[in-house]
Amino acid sequence: MSRLLLIAFDESDLNSCGGFATALGLPYDALLLSGNSTVGGEKIFQAGLTAIPTADTVAGLLAVFVHTYSHVAFVSSMRSKDLAARIAGILDAAMITDAIGIESPTTFLRPMVAGAVIATVDAEPPVFITFRPSNFAPAELTAGTVVPMGIEPAPGSKVVKASAKTAGRPDLSQAKIIVSGGKPLKDAATFETVLGGLADALGGAVGATRAAVDTGIAPNELQVGQTGKIVAPNLYIAAGISGSTQHMAGIKDSKVIVAINKDGDAPIFEVADIGIVADLFDVLPQLQAKLPGARS
Amino acid sequence: MRILIPIKRVVDPYAKVRALPSGEGLDTAGLKFEINPFDEIALEEAVRMKERGEATELIAITIGGSECEEQLRKSLAIGADKAILVETTSALDPSAVSTELAAWAKELQPDLILMGKQGTENDENQTGQRLAAKLDWPQATFASKIEKLASGFQVTRETDLGEEVVEVAQPAVITVDLRLNEPRYIALPGIIKARSKPLERATPKTALTVKVKTRSYANPPARGAGIRVNSVDELVAAIAAKGVL
Ligand SMILES: Cc1cc2nc3c(=O)[nH]c(=O)nc-3n(C[C@H](O)[C@H](O)[C@H](O)COP(=O)(O)OP(=O)(O)OC[C@H]3O[C@@H](n4cnc5c(N)ncnc54)[C@H](O)[C@@H]3O)c2cc1C
Ligand SMILES: Nc1ncnc2c1ncn2[C@@H]1O[C@H](COP(=O)(O)O)[C@@H](O)[C@H]1O
User: Fold this and answer.
1) Gap between the Cα atoms of A265 and A254, Å rounded
2) What's the Cα-to-Cα distance from B121 to each of A8, A19, A110, B8, B11, rounded to whole Å?
3) In this predicted structure, what is the pLDDT of residue A296?
4) What is the CATH number of the domain that holds A236?
5) A114/B123 touch (CB, cutoff 8 Å), yes or no
6) What is the spatial distance between Cα B224 and Cα B88, in angstroms, rounded to a whole number?
7) How many domains does chain A have?
8) Does any domain span residue A188?
9) Which of A247, B157, B165, B193 is 20 to 30 A from B24 (CA-CA)?
10) Which residues form the domain of A184?
11) Is the predicted ipTM greater than 0.90, yes or no?
12) For residues B97 and B100, what is the distance between their CA atoms, to the nearest angstrom?
């Protein structure tokens, strides 16, 4: 029988699951590794973990748990790719990475070559899916019966140290406004003052190119693109970003892209809705002072 | 320590790739093929481990057509001691590749499998995790730093929130991210020396059954061209007019 299990690491994942569950159109349950939501599906399995164990220590147990489902879906992220592929490997099941569309419960659309091409792929159940929430119209999840569930990690890789969630700016993958910058931002302090200043004034998030992250201008969790985060804000301001295919792969679903670049031939202008050929160090502070609604 | 390094041949990661008008594949006419950039980083790391005396033997392995010999020769030039080309013309997916790689790992018994986190052509990011599952080995994905411990590795991983440091016992699978290292430029002596290194051609050990079949390929709709403004005041007005603030 066809049935979907949504696996959420926490409630923020669950918030992004409604659109996918609705688009797939199968009856569904949810497994919440941490948090205590009572919406998520007909049954909501709550593992109640305070720290998420490493993928190799829980995949075996989860493989046994999920084997009655025809579809197992996760919000696309680094942590979900780490875990989903390990469980799929144990079960020798099909897996679709980064689904962006559903034709039927066995046919999905997914991007490849940094989003330059869209592939239509067929997979027989059981199928594991990581999906990009911004490609599915938001929908509510069903309220259901809570079922407590114990998870006992097996031996495997051990976490020695981990970054914690930083409070403050909105999460990149959920942000409505993103101010993003590249290599010309010079150093971490300049990046933080110039880009961070405008982002805070607009209540938005900050993003960065790989070049900015590689040179230590921005921390790696801010990288947007093929190998970083995929974003879909209402407004994406790209300052000093050339517009490589790898970066574009992460921003194409933005509603409005604004490009600020000194070089009028930069490829970012081919995709920008609004472009200005200018120095970002001139433009950004002025935007902060002049944009309606910006707090200076 | 013996290290196995799976190498994938991919279309030039910096090229603009389109789908064929027929929808039957990618239009790669006139494009170069390269070692998947993530695999080149994995290989570079393995070579550095050997240079530090932590590794003794580096084996590069590719599953694919005879054209992949080019990437394996380059791997030998970078510093692999030996290369294996598992020849097939079948369509592959991460399930088929990881099953085949697991069979080779059982025979070759490496202490470490070091590989890219994803292939830049398919962007699947599955093979390493699936391979670790099949071997029942620990995994450390998306590595940006690797240190050898007495009988394992300490790995700094890139995560959604930043970084995480994990310890894995060997044998293990480690998949690498872009910031692990900067691959070296291949010098001419390496290229010449590589000609005499062994490149074994082998037949697949498994059935190479795929779980996901690609039916067709298409180009996404292009974003329409936008407007250019000439002053910050025009820019402010243009953004305000979009109603996204
Ligand atoms: C396998 C692989 C994966 C990758 N993944 C990603 C990814 O996920 N995300 C990503 O971003 N990149 C990724 N890259 C890297 C990508 O190819 C580019 O190198 C990178 O995006 C370039 O960053 P940039 O725009 O900051 O720098 P540059 O290309 O150097 O561009 C800087 C731009 O700033 C402009 N400029 C300079 N000074 C000013 C100024 N004062 N005011 C205004 N404009 C100015 C310049 O005209 C130029 O256009 C990947 C590459 C590979 C090979
Ligand atoms: N045909 C192949 N031959 C050898 N290694 C491969 C092959 N396909 C994938 N890999 C390895 O698996 C990694 C992840 O690829 P993927 O899961 O396809 O994104 C790559 O970086 C390679 O190390």
Assistant:
1) 21
2) 28, 28, 12, 10, 7
3) 64
4) 3.40.50.1220
5) yes
6) 42
7) 2
8) yes
9) A247
10) 177-289
11) yes
12) 5
